[in-house]
Write a structure and sequence with these properties.
Blueprint lengths: L3 H6 L13 H32 L1 H12 L1 H28 L6 H29 L1
Helix pairs in contact: 2-3, 2-4, 4-5
Length: 132
Amino acid sequence: MPDVDMKGSRPLSPHLQIYKPILTMVMSILHRITGAALYFGTLLLAWWLIAAASGPAYFDFVNDLMGSLLGRLVLFGFTWALVHHMLGGIRHFIWDMGAGFGRDAREWLARATIIGSVALTILLWVIGYMVR
């Protein structure tokens, strides 16, 4: 017969305070968050396309809203989420091919995803403003 006192004193599962946040864990959580943020950004893109199809007055309204400081910050965040999620997907693809499982490789890929997403986002916006 099991000892009831012993069963009651041990934890049922690890608590969040036990886990030490490491870079790859943070990147996994961030990959999920950016994936969810892309749904919101896709709604903004659909709204912009619907405004373009609705007529010039409504399109100008939405364009002015997206061109405001707040609108540009949201679009910049959407661009970063898109690039970051893409690079995270490439990182997962590398893992699917059976490479990059070593400790140093995992850390390098995580850092490359962060640095690459920020750099590519800034580069895309600089190119966008130069073309504009």
